[in-house]
Amino acid sequence: MNTEIKYLKWSVICFLLISCTESRKGIVSDLEEFKEAVANAQPGDEIIMANGIWENVELLFEGEGTNEKPIFLKAETPGKVIISGQSNLRIAGEYLDVSGLVFKNGFTPTSEVISFRKNKENLAYNSRIHNCVIDNFNNPERFDADFWVMIYGRNNRFDHNTLIGKRNQGVTMAVRLNAPENQENNHIIEYNYFGPRQILGSNGGETLRIGTSHFSRTYSNTLVRKNYFDRCNGEHEIISNKSCGNEFRDNVFFESQGTLTMRHGHHTLVENNYFLGNRKPNTGGIRIINEYQTVQKNYLYGLTGHRFRGALVIMNGVPNSPINRYNQVIDSKMNNNLVIDSDYIQLCAGSDEERSAIPIGSTFLNNAILGKDNLTPFTIYDDVSGIEFNGNLMNEEAELPFKDGFDKVEYQLTKNSNGLLQPNSDVLNIVGLSELRLPVTKEETGADFYPKNDIEIAFRTGKITKVEQGEGSLFLAIQNAEAGDVLMLEEGGTYLLRKYSYIKSQITIMTEGNAKATVLSEKSSFFRIENGGAIELENITIDGAESPDQPGNNVISTSKYAMNQNYKVFVKNCTIKDLVVNHSFDFLKTYKHTFAESVLFLNSDFTNISGSIISMTTETEDLGIYNVENIDMHKCSFSDVQGIVMDVYRGGTDESTFGPIINIVDSKFSNSGKGKRNRAKASLKFHGVQKLNVKGCIWEDTAPLKLYLTNGEPITNIEDCSFKNTGEIIANNEGYHTSNIIYQN
Ligand code: CA
């Protein structure tokens, strides 16, 4: 029998081969045919999904193949079978092999996109999913959690897949141990491309999790190797290891915010992984918690993360820790690692009243820590007598944490032929590393047919469109703009918006020349950022003179619905004035379950405004969710603002995130924050902000600055500021630093 018969309908093949034991190949073109083929599949059969868009399909691939003859589920052409809409895939049985599928333009109606089980009783074993893609297959509700890949059963392999752009809450990929059939599973996760994952602004943005705290003392024995983690920034755990006996070898972490965290479980091996932070913010390395962990021969370059996100972190535990807290570090090794140009090594991290169990029986040997950015990279939070230090190297300029166990070497780095910075061979020998090279390249990972394009489109990468002044012209231009476009307004022109302008992609609106164009609006909002949108205003005047006489207008608002794509607001060299037609006229109004990755105010003046300027306080349930990651304000002035200038709220005690991070420099606040509707009675108010830097600012006749310091160890610095007739800084505790502060009455 010719097994190469292709493109025959499955029903025809079944008819022809009803009693035949040869492997069969047949194409299926809809869900009914798919189900029939699956129901009849024998070992060695190939079920081929026809090219095209499969919309709203919940695929269940169930069968019993054999080691020699798996049952295959394939795309007619890899990459040409698009599964979209409300769709997912479950596999259950033995020796199943899935390849070539792409999930995009939709999301799963259940909690999982790809699941290695049919239900609790029917799991997948000895099965493989490879050369598949999940691309931005996200629930539009940001905090409606789901998982893209959930591995159950045993002896499964997930390899050469591409997972890009998870934007809603929920781990991208997880291994479950929630029944004996899932434990000691020997899964292999390799050669996958874990593409960019945006900052979630909450816990639940891990890229890979193995186990859960509840099953963390059981063995998973999962091997994670040769994967490429590219800007996986969801939260501070890129990988959350929560079970025993797992190995993480030969992976690359490229510019990813967060760390490989041994959150629970023991007997973990972390070896020969390359962390390339390239000095990007919040990039971290490896964090040890628990017993019998081995971290060795890893290469860590350009990592800037601090506290739990340092390059190398050993934590304190909780005595007799409950299963969901922190086990003491016992008999663990952090040896032979090469740390270059990275800022923080944290020992006994997290030491506090609860986390008082210091590491014991552990070693820190033959590591080289070379860097000039921070010459005191070690932070010792508690008693390190339970860690043996020997053979470690630091460069001459750096301060040794102790005399014993460390030697000084010259800071001498050269770029090797593989493009990696490395020290001289003496240092390499002591660390015990030979040739430095990436254990896997980006190109070697992921589905072979799928591009690894950047998902972020920056401002000003598109075309420039000149917009004539008048009524409606700017609205039309915004409606027709594409991502990255610049809308160039006439010098000194006047533009009236008579409808809401929906910002659906990255749009820049600016004036050509010196005299700013003026933009007015007859609607309650000038610009509304929709999901996927971002706005940059440069060199324009926003005037509230034509706005409707009603309370609660604003210049920029987010969507009123959840946005699963992070947005940006940039305001540069702008004048914002006379937002006073009625009360509570805000500049930036944000709604719940929206998240700004970056808000930048530069060189702009805000005068005569009845509402607030930046209010990002919609996540009030104290779940560790918040509205903005970075706010940067430089050289701005605010006068006669009746509401609050800036109000940022990040509640809860969760420690999984980095932000909010706020910088306010060389700015001036006068006669602001004093309106009777400003219940905060403050000009700036920060609750739970993780990093706050206020420098070179002046307050005059203005409501005070209020701080509510909570959650982790927030870093709060206020320097070179003067407060005239404003009152002193009001804070809930003393955990902030000030220098050169002048109060005048
Ligand atoms: Ca987490």
Provide a descriptive summary of the structure in words.
By secondary structure, this protein is mainly beta. The protein has a domain at 224-446: Pectate Lyase C-like. Helix content is 4%, strand content 41%. It has four helices and 72 strands. The strands form seven sheets. It has a 20-stranded parallel β-sheet that branches. A 14-stranded parallel β-sheet has the order 3-6-9-13-16-19-22-25-28-31-34-37-40-41, covered by helices on one side. Strands 4, 7, 10, 11, 14, 17, 20, 23, 26, 29, 32, 35 and 38 form a 13-stranded parallel β-sheet that branches. A hairpin with a 5-residue loop joins strand 42 (413-415) and strand 43 (421-423). The model is unreliable at 1-5 and 15-19 (pLDDT under 50). Bound molecules: calcium ion. The site of calcium ion has 6 residues, from strand 23.
3D shape: globular
Q: Give the proportion of residues in helices.
A: under 10%
CATH domain class of one domain? Mainly Beta
Task: Compute the CA-based radius of gyration.
Answer: 28 Å
Helical segment count:
4
Terminal CA distance reads: 97 Å
The count of DSSP E runs of length 2 or more, i.e. the number of strands, is: 72
Largest sheet: 20 strands, parallel
Structural class: mainly beta
- What name goes with the CATH superfamily of one domain? Single-stranded right-handed beta-helix, Pectin lyase-like
CATH topology description of one domain: Pectate Lyase C-like
| Rounded mean pLDDT score | 95
Name of the CATH architecture of one domain: 3 Solenoid
**Which spans have pLDDT < 50 for at least 5 consecutive residues?**
1-5, 15-19
What is the strand content? 35-45%
Which ligands occur here?
calcium ion
